[in-house]
Amino acid sequence: MLDKLYTDVFYEITKYLSFKEICLIKSCNKRLRNRIIYLEKGIVKNNLDLYYKNELYNESYDNIYKIRNNSYYNFYHFLRINLNNFYNKNLTTISDNFYINGLYRKIMIYCLENKCDIEKYPYLFDLFIFYMLLNVDMYNNIYNDYVLNFLSLSSPSKYVYNDIFYNVKIKFYSYINSYVHNRLITIDYDILVDISKYLTNMCIIRRIITHKRIDFSCTKLYHCCYYCAFKNLKEICLIKRMYYKDKCISENYNNLKHFLSIKNKDFYNYLLNREKIIVNDMIYVKNPITNKRIRINGTFYKKKMLEFYSLDYHIYKSMDNYINNKRLFFIKKYFN
């Protein structure tokens, strides 16, 4: 169907597609491949405009317009400088990632064999992908939303370990985790959910636990400072108590407990203790002497329980069993 559309209509459609979707369409059949090759200069230009729009969100309109008109100049200038630096250093590998190294060698070999400048390289999509990956792997450009979205396009359908950019993402996402923890950047919730499949910390989990289902199956735990971690764990526990009927929060919370029981026993035990503290605030017992209700988290209760223990152990044991049963009931109700 797409290959039967007029070229200008097809080009307009590509403006609303992600770069990954365009590459998938390109691989469908020969006619679509030829059509996208014909339009690839305009497609790359549109994506560069999106990239520079995010780069220059604080600049004036005139500066944005000027840079957009020169997006190809900036694009090729960036590639030319980096490739010259790699060549002058006699580098055969520039990254820990095999795909980036393979793309680099492919581009460099073509330019050397044909004795041409980078602008003569015939596969523009290769250059654009290489350009974006350099921004990620070498320059850690975490401030650009387009870069973050571009990197998430490679997410595999099942296991993140199968991602060809897995090692690049772990390194890149560690910077994001650090910056989010220190409140130096703000990132869209959907991007944080994608990041959490690879690497996450308590700060990110606290932000997204109410937003969307979190997949902890292959996640690595990024250790921020213990003060912030325990503070966020406390807030996560309160969120679960307040919205205990929410299915998304309940599933995320239970998955988090299982995740922490494997990755960090200190965090897991702290979460269990917070559950007990919260439900203890909800439990009252009756003083058998005065018939007044006593809150078990109060100091008065502790003094009275010591008295009951020394005066009448049966009363003490009966009250203690009641409290334990009530505690288990509330924990099961609000935290399971």
Structure explained in plain terms:
Among the domains are: 161-280, no CATH class; 281-335, no CATH class. It is built from 16 helices and four strands. The protein has helices at residues 7-14, 19-26, 30-55, 61-69, 71-88, 98-113, 124-137, 145-152, 166-181, 189-196, 202-208, 226-242, 247-263, 265-280, 299-311, 313-335, and strands spanning 199-200, 220-221, 284-286, 293-295. Strand 1 (199-200), helix 11 and strand 2 form a beta-alpha-beta unit. Helix 6 crosses helix 7 (124-137). It is elongated and about 95 Å long. The model is unreliable at 57-68 (pLDDT under 50).
CA(first)-CA(last) distance = 49 Å
How many helices does DSSP assign? 16
List the strand order in the largest sheet. 1-2
Q: What would the principal axes of the Cα set say about the shape?
A: elongated
- Spell out the helices and strands N to C: HHHHHHHHHHEHEHHHEEHH
Going by helix content, strand content and strand pairing, the class is mainly alpha
Mean pLDDT: 86
Strand content: under 5%
Percent of residues in helices comes to 55-70%
Low-confidence stretches: 57-68
Please summarize the sheet with the most strands. Answer: 2 strands, parallel
Task: From the alpha carbons, calculate the radius of gyration and give it in angstroms.
Answer: 29 Å
Task: Let me know the number of strands.
Answer: 4
